[in-house]
Amino acid sequence: MALTLLFSFAVAAFSPNVSVDHGRSCGNPLITLGPSLGGTHPVYVVMADGQNVVFQKSTDAGMTWLAENMVVGQGGASDLTTDPEGNVYIMCGQSGHIYCVMSTDGGGTWCLPRKVDDNDTAVKVWGAHVAASTDGRLFCAWIDPRTGESHIWSSVSSDRGTTWSTNICVDEGYSGSRAYVSVQPGTDHYLVASENEELDACLYRSQDAGRTFEPGVRLETSGAHTAEPHIVSDREHVVCDYTDDDGNNELTKARTLYTWADTWGSCKSITDPSYNSYYSGPLAISADGRVHAALMMNHRDGRYDTYYSCSTDHGATWSACERVNDDTMGDKWSPAIAADKDGHAYLVWEDGRESGPGVWFSTNNWSPNARHPTQPSSFLPPASVVRGVLYLPRRAPAAFSLLSSDGRKALELRAGANDVSHLGPGVYFVRDTQARTVEASRVLIVR
Asked: What share of the chain in percent tops pLDDT 70?
């Protein structure tokens, strides 16, 4: 195990987890960010609470949330996004149709639902996703069996979701679960990632703002069956990930289309065979070009955790996977992710922890003065870790403890050298045990 100790607040150290749904055991969370307000992006989350679609909001990077979950619809939420003006859109499936609800005031009030599909009769539609273009148009795609067979259908709105264009059949044959979408900024390139009739992950491209689509391109080149692709893009890159099941292990892989040259890169693994991935790898892309992935994985022990990985080269290479949840009781399911312009990631997931199952949140954009009960308020001098040994400065206090992110004591420490090779990855605090106030230093131990 390679160990590193970091003290910059910009590193990918995730904050102590926060409950979003106030203990109501909500599920299927989705997350997005609004435009920056005074340097902070509002964080929006929608969840399923029984048959209700409920909305939550944070204006302090996820430290605190609305006192009550706000009901915004019925049925089930399948996606949400914001446009450049800050309007918030939620896609819902209800009574055999796809609907869009919109808020112009950051979720304070919501418009009446607007029907997206142009089916005359109700059919079992599902898996809708939506993206906003830089000029404010909305692009939505979903799975629709209106012809008797399931296909990907799409529609575009140019008036903030009030009316939607005639639906277009995207694919040549389909039997998958969702249709993830993206719009390349400043272009008419509308993109859909989904599965074809042979259950292979594919990318479908439109270069005329969703009027027509090219045949799907299979993402995996080995011939193995793949599933559940996700997609993000900037003006010159389209990055997709997907799950590859080789019969022994499920890996999350990624592949990049370089649109300036219309050339595909090679398939790259985000996870390695020591983990088992699930069919869940949502992506986000930040203005600095970093691509962020939320993953659901286990160490072949049957219990899943939420993990995070990022790429600084548009999907060509990926960082080591970092566990996000600070609780290891119960499964962590259905992660979702968003990223701000500076490259910070914001994650939500469905969590089975004993202290309160439901939807939980964490971010690597957090302050040492955040109002978390287990988080310290000030910092000791820097320290370092070399080959599993933690070295604290000689001027540090004589007696102190290493605490885990939930405030539990992990190790008694002393000035000088301390063996920490047995500790797992995570965020730790150094507390002066003789001081009257909590003095702490944030420690990030990474594989």
From this structure: 81
144 and 183 in a single domain? The answer is yes
Number of domains in the chain: 2
State how far the Cα of 286 lies from the Cα of 234, in Å rounded to an integer: 9
- C-alpha–C-alpha distance, residues 184 and 207, integer Å: 10
- What are the E-state strand segments in 160-249? 168-169, 180-183, 190-195, 201-206, 217-218, 226-233, 237-245
Q: What is the pLDDT of residues 385-430, one digit of tens each?
A: 555 666 665 455 566 777 665 556 677 777 667 777 777 655 566 6
Q: Is the pTM of this model over 0.85?
A: no
Residue 424 lies in domain: 1-11+372-447
User: Which of 189, 187, 193, 155 minimizes the C-alpha distance to 171?
Assistant: 193
Residue 103, CA distances (Å) to 1, 80, 353, 410 in order:
48, 11, 33, 46
Query: In this structure, is the dihedral angle defined by the CA atoms of residues 25, 30, 31 and 34, taken in order, positive or negative?
Result: negative
Quote the tokens at residue 192.
């859909």
Alpha helices for 132-213 (secondary structure H): none
Distances (CA, A) of 388 to 177, 222, 446: 44, 39, 11
CATH of the domain at 403: 2.60.40
Question: Residue 77's closest CA among 108, 57, 51?
Answer: 51
Could you tell me the two tokens for 328?
A: 């290891």
The residues, ordered by sequence, that sit 6+ positions from 355 with a Cβ below 8 Å of its Cβ are: 327, 329
The CATH number of the domain holding residue 345 is: 2.120.10.10
* Sole residue written with tokens 């009316």: 163
The confidence band for 245, taking pLDDT boundaries of 50, 70 and 90, is: confident
pLDDT tens-digit readout, 331-350: 999 999 999 999 999 999 99
Burial letters 377-415, b for 16+ CB under 10 A, else e: eeebeebebeeeebbbeeebbeebbbbbbeeeebbebee
